[in-house]
Amino acid sequence: MASSWFPRTEAMSASHAAPGRRPTLRAALLGAAAAVALTGGLANGLSTPALAATATEASPAVSPSSFADVVERVRGAVVSVKVKITEAADSDDDGEMPQFAPGDPLERFFKRFGEKGAPFERRGKPHASQAQGSGFIISSDGYVVTNNHVVEHAADVALTMEDGKSVQATVVGTDKKTDLALLKIKEPGSYPHVNFASATPRVGEWVIAVGNPFGLGGTVTAGIVSARGRDIGAGPYDDFLQIDAPVNRGNSGGPTFNAQGEVVGINTAIFSPSGGSVGIGFAIPAESAQAVIASLKDKGSVARGWIGVQIQPVTADIADSLGLKSSKGALVAEAQPNSPATAAGIKSGDVILGIDGERIDGPRDLARKVAALGPGKKTDLIYWHNGAEKTAAVKLGTLPDEKEANARPAAGADNSAFRGLGLKLAPAASIQGAGSEGVVVADVDPDGVAAQKGLRVGDVILEAGGHAVSQPTEISAVLADAKKEGRKAVLLRIKGSEGTRFVAIAINPAS
């Protein structure tokens, strides 16, 4: 979501507002996306030290009297990352904030970490800027982990060690979807380094954050794991740890340690109305990040599994309209042509319920599991089709680059009215530029049922109750039949500016 008051690299925004001015809201994402175990078997070739076993049972049961010994062991491996960036005039904002629905309260509060040299710099001509973040060394030969948004568009990367020494580094690889990056120190040597933890921390366990907030390198804060599995709308693989150890702008890419001095997370985002820490921070889990880092080291990029479906959550209304007893699963809004899903017989309106015998909770769970399996993997999808549960064998493809959806211009209204729904509809073929398929939403009552379900002028209804439609009367007939059958809602397949989705419309709304 582009916005004129977001600098191009919000992740590296200024740490201080100009005197007398209120600090500008910035995206609190230390990272653009959540991390998950994205590729199977990618640990091969990762030259980090062997991971120390971290038994959950061995975690301290009471508050430690001091973190000093742990900090003394690990702080030498934490570095400050300083980046020089050259930004082109009026370039696209690749590092945009998470995609929230219009008016969502989170839209105002998620801010990206980092610091930028020019607090209120406006784009319009090519210019150079500086950014700061944090990172940590994971091998004696100088591999360093940080956030993608810290080093994105970097022309020069310098790392400051604990003793104040500055060394140059190169970017080995980056992954925007998980906001992770791998660097390599240019100068040969044997460097202090830390290990990733081999076990996920429990909620309530102590953690320590070390980083470079506001340019103050070597800063240590402590807190606990507040929650796990957080989805903050940053990306398709959100699975954040929530911590209350204070982290601020400049902590981007820095480590979160457990009480044994092992890395359990990479600090990536904060939730803040002011831009400063309010005790709600988010870190990419170590067990998820390791596979990504291994792939970046081995290949310079990350390959993910792909089945080729556009999916959405199953609401209670949608479940009822499809005859499902539960709202778990992922509704297929569209199966892409020539995709593994299409080849396996998966169609729009089907609900994917599980993969390889394991049931899924929703779209995010499915996306993580498919991505983690990797390209070429053969798997079995459990899905709901025409009122029955089925299984299909699928060979996963490689996730292609993301493509922007093309916005459809608003259509003109006609006299066909569905007053109970707050809609006016017209055949798509009768409206110039609307295409030949479906029925166009020509007008929407902002207080009506359809508006509450997210329908907008210009949306195209492709199907109603599983039947392709081209005339408003066909939709009216489907609604009437469903009412006779005692159903509470009818499922509409909608094509809009954000892609194809399903919407369940109540059959007998108040007029």
Structural commentary:
With 511 residues, the chain is an alpha+beta fold. It has three domains: 1-302, Thrombin, subunit H (Beta Barrel), CATH 2.40.10.120; 305-398, Pdz3 Domain, CATH 2.30.42; 416-506, Roll (Pdz3 Domain), CATH 2.30.42.10. The chain has nine helices and 29 strands. It has helices spanning 68-74, 106-109, 148-151, 286-299, 316-322, 340-343, 363-373, 449-452, 472-484, and strands at 78-87, 110-111, 115-116, 127-137, 143-146, 154-160, 166-175, 180-185, 206-211, 219-230, 240-243, 255-258, 263-271, 281-285, 305-306, 309-313, 330-335, 351-355, 358-359, 378-385, 388-395, 397-398, 416-418, 423-427, 439-444, 460-464, 467-468, 489-496, 499-506. The strands form five sheets. Strands 23, 24, 25, 26, 27, 28 and 29 form a seven-stranded antiparallel sheet that branches. Strands 1-4-5-8-7-6 form a six-stranded antiparallel barrel. A six-stranded antiparallel beta barrel has the order 9-10-11-14-13-12. A hairpin with a 5-residue loop joins strand 4 (127-137) and strand 5. It is elongated and about 75 Å long. Mean pLDDT is 77; it is low at 1-61, 90-96, 111-123 and 402-417.
Oligomer: single chain
Shape: elongated
Q: Total domains, how many?
A: 3
Average pLDDT, rounded to a whole number, is 77
- CATH hierarchy, class of the largest domain: Mainly Beta
Class from secondary-structure proportions: alpha+beta
Enumerate the spans where pLDDT stays under 50 for 5 or more consecutive residues: 1-61, 90-96, 111-123, 402-417
The biggest sheet amounts to:
7 strands, antiparallel
Helix count equals 9
Q: Tell me the Rg in angstroms.
A: 25 Å
What proportion strand?
Answer: 25-35%
What would you say the CATH architecture of the largest domain is? Beta Barrel
* Helix content percent band: 10-25%
Terminal residue distance: 36 Å
Reported by name, the CATH topology of the largest domain is: Thrombin, subunit H
Q: Kindly state the number of beta strands.
A: 29
